[in-house]
Write a structure and sequence with these properties.
Layout: E1 2-3, E2 10-14, H1 19-30, E3 34-41, H2 55-69, E4 73-77, H3 79-95, H4 102-121, E5 126-128, E6 133-137, E7 143-147, H5 164-168, E8 170-171, H6 179-188, H7 210-217, E9 223-227, E10 232-236, E11 261-267, E12 272-277, E13 286-297, E14 306-311, E15 319-325, E16 331-340, E17 347-352, E18 355-365
Parallel strand pairs: 2-3, 2-5, 3-4, 5-8, 9-12
Antiparallel strand pairs: 1-6, 6-7, 7-18, 9-10, 11-12, 13-16, 13-18, 14-15, 14-17, 15-16, 17-18
């Protein structure tokens, strides 16, 4: 396995106005690449959804960084593509009862989808981003993605649906560094965003609560909250506003100290939200086997039974699981340890140690 090709290339950096992408641009420039900064304009919150969507400030910050580095700055309007590929995907997913992951899809469909397409059409060879992941070249010449050098900031999970073609055109210079080193580099380059706080929230939407976002697009549909025995415990506001494993915000208080009710299921036909005790033996809360669809394999197909490290959510620990192909391009995962709250619509990333193999979307539990 070799490090990224050190030859000088023409790179379009996705400059978000944050410190990570800004340092990525500075590092690529320092390495001798021909660098242009591109701000992806995906969302302007023109519909008045509550929350802070600071895209105007982000553009100003990104422009200031580009000016400091002495590189060209472009604002690239991708609003229509974002609505078609991300917003509609989110809304339809929640309407159908699943819990989508917009951040993973943003990387596949936007940063390394339409943005990469734009870059290649403009004569660029790579797209650079501030992701905490590392790209390497395998002996067969294919691109591999490794976990970031900083275990606390590793973002390879969010790249788990990328294709080989996308990975081959990606550069992640900050993925070789620890977060404090990135801050230090920002100060060394005198970047105006060196002390800017990291952004949080839905991909590209800023500080917009998911519940407020969904309420704007999906009508509330109240119904009963029931326990695992079918007894009515209260009323929910709409099944799309809750997710499996949720401990707070469902409105059912526990009558016992030290115990809590959690969401363990949904019954769309009866519009019921099902809650149970947060215990390993509670039906529906912990599972060993599940089916994963929309499978993406980065370097090698999942065409046989094999052991992988499967990471069921971003901050979860990757756990050993047997991966086995089943019908329609899907795979079955059999975890060695029961997993809490496997949520349809969420992403599972597959690893071989520190190397990412790919990923897919949870569809059902077995």
């Amino acid at each position: 396995m070799q490090s990224d090709d050190s030859r000088m290339s023409k790179v379009l950096v996705g400059l978000s106005g944050g410190v990570d992408s800004s340092v990525a641009a500075a590092l690529l420039l320092e390495q001798g690449h021909e660098v242009v900064a591109g701000y992806m304009k995906n969302w302007v919150n023109a519909e008045g959804i509550p929350g802070d969507c600071p895209w105007e400030q982000d553009i100003e910050d990104a422009h200031a960084v580009a000016k400091t580095l002495g590189i060209e700055f472009r604002v690239i309007d991708l609003i229509d593509s974002y609505k078609d590929r991300i917003v509609d995907y989110l809304v339809e997913g929640y309407r159908s009862g699943i819990t989508p992951n917009p951040d993973v899809w943003c990387n596949r469909e936007m940063k390394f989808g339409v943005f990469l397409d734009y870059a290649l059409s403009q004569g660029f060879e790579f797209v650079g981003t501030g992701h905490y992941a590392r790209r390497r070249t395998l002996a067969d010449g294919s691109a591999a993605i490794l976990r970031g050098a900083d275990p606390n900031k590793d973002q390879s999970y969010f790249l788990s649906l990328m294709t080989q073609w996308q990975a081959a055109h990606a550069l992640f210079p900050t993925g070789e560094m620890l977060k404090p080193e990135v801050r230090q580099a920002a100060r060394r380059f005198n970047l105006p965003v060196a002390e800017k706080k990291d952004s949080q929230g839905i991909c590209f939407l800023g500080q917009v609560k998911m519940s407020d976002f969904l309420r704007h697009y999906v009508d509330d549909s109240p119904g009963p909250i029931v326990d695992t025995q079918g007894r009515v415990m209260g009323e929910h506001r709409g099944l799309h506003l809750y997710t499996l494993g949720q401990r707070k915000g469902h409105g059912v208080a526990s009558p016992r100290d030290g115990m809590a009710y959690v969401v363990v299921g949904k019954n769309p036909d009866r519009n019921e939200l099902i809650v149970g005790w947060d215990l390993p033996e509670t039906e529906g809360l912990y599972v060993r086997e599940c089916a994963v669809g929309t499978v993406s394999a980065l370097n090698e197909p999942f065409d046989g039974k094999r052991l992988v490290d499967a990471q069921p959510r971003y901050r979860a620990k990757a756990e050993p699981a047997v991966l086995e192909p089943i019908d329609d391009g899907k795979v079955r995962l059999s975890f060695q340890k029961p997993q809490r709250a496997i949520v349809p619509g969420q992403i599972c990333a597959f690893y071989d140690g520190g190397r990412m193999l790919g990923g897919g979307v949870f569809e059902s539990v077995c």
